[in-house]
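Hi there. Long-time user, first ticket. I'm pasting a complex I've been working with (about 492 residues overall). I'd like to know whether the download I got is complete or cut off, because the file seemed smaller than I expected. Thanks.
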Amino acid sequence: MGFLGGSCLAERLSHYVTLTPREQAALGTLEQQERSFRRGAVVRREHDSARDLFIVRKGWLHTSALLGNGSRQIMRLHFPGDILGVSGVAFARAADSVVAITDASLCPFDKDRLACLFEDHPRLAALIFALATAERVALADRLASIGRTAARARVSLVICEIFARLRIAGEVDNALHIPLTQEEIGDATGLTAVHVNRMMRALVDEGLIERSGSIVRLLDEVRLAGEAGFVNRFAKIDTSWLPAAR
Amino acid sequence: MGFLGGSCLAERLSHYVTLTPREQAALGTLEQQERSFRRGAVVRREHDSARDLFIVRKGWLHTSALLGNGSRQIMRLHFPGDILGVSGVAFARAADSVVAITDASLCPFDKDRLACLFEDHPRLAALIFALATAERVALADRLASIGRTAARARVSLVICEIFARLRIAGEVDNALHIPLTQEEIGDATGLTAVHVNRMMRALVDEGLIERSGSIVRLLDEVRLAGEAGFVNRFAKIDTSWLPAAR
DNA sequence: CGACCCCTTGATTAGCCTCAACAACCGTGG
DNA sequence: CCACGGTTGTTGAGGCTAATCAAGGGGTCG
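Hi, the file is complete. Here it is re-exported in full:
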């Protein structure tokens, strides 16, 4: 709220380019509806019809998949301003599930609206493509983390990423309430909750972070990022090639 | 070659929509240049300037990253018709390296050309976005595989994916020359070459695949895909929402 | 023919999982 | 208000999967 007619997406995008009034208006139309979800609610289940995309207005959510062996992989965390359910762009049925981690509020919009954006606002379409690409790179970073680094580094990486992404939205210092269970962190990192617990403890013991309840404070951010091999993919993206605004 | 004026990308895209002559012409302009690379050649190194994207005309390549601990993660394999170096859409400098696995031939084109596509051919832009999204979902599948499944399933998945993706290009039965070393398969699956070897042997012993040299034959594709939890993300994508062609 | 790369197999080690028990916390209902 | 069940966090003990270390064989290229 409190920005550009209350459009969370416009607020996010304006972090990278200066939006024209027409563009702001176009983005505003994507957030006309709003739906609320309780903590734990399933926004969309795998294989559901996937005509809608969502813009996160409030809360944390995750995109995940259940595997044949009963385990779960969390693909991505979502924060206010994120577009989620993007896999619906490629498929008629959802490839993954979306679950509310905290109470959350979403603005659904139909794929057709996205088509209109491609028709009328090529610059916005290209920018959204660029941001989706940055997310893909961040996903690849996590792939490398899970595939090729030890448990401590994996846990460090999610912590780094959460802080970095929330800082773009602003209002985050170096302490943060993280409403994730250790089981959820495990499902994001490919570890068990038990081992996440031990790794968190190790990070605390070595003075990298501090915990009280669900609040995490970064004590030595440089070393934490170093161990994790963290690169902030969202700080700056290349907008030099984007077509002109309309 | 042998299709639509020789554009590999047009050939790929026409698998999903019927291209108009204007669209074909626009795609053709992306493949005016062509560069050849020898097996093992580095097309682009991490941190290099990333103004160009590439369309694969011939050969196999991979996108990978080297980690601080000396290991390597292969993010994606590339086959003819693929667009690679897409991370350049988001960043001014490459987030990953591209290496030729076999002798390969690529058509580089500048990001500005992509901007033109967004301006003049919204339907193509949207389709490319949809395909990039399908790839992101496939990447997420591999994340789940590496994070939450055992070594055998991970190896099975790469095999399934390679076959499925090459079948879209056609001319692949259920036997295929796979020019990957076991080390490369390990770097793609988060395993060591030694363990890849053992898992391949297990797949052979149980009659799921057959090997002679670098040729792999699928003997029980259903069971292999079942173990891997494989879903073919490239068979069919939703084009119903795309804007009208111009 | 030698050097190098890749594949293959065995033996040992280590990191993470599994199982288990208990404490702390929370929302709910009596 | 307290009792209660359920969820989450914490810690220990032991087991298994995959890594590491090591050695040898086959193929290819200079």
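A couple of notes from our side: Chain B has two domains: 4-120, 151-228. Residues 181-183, 193-194, 197-198, 201 of chain B lie near DNA strand C (CB under 10 Å from a C1').
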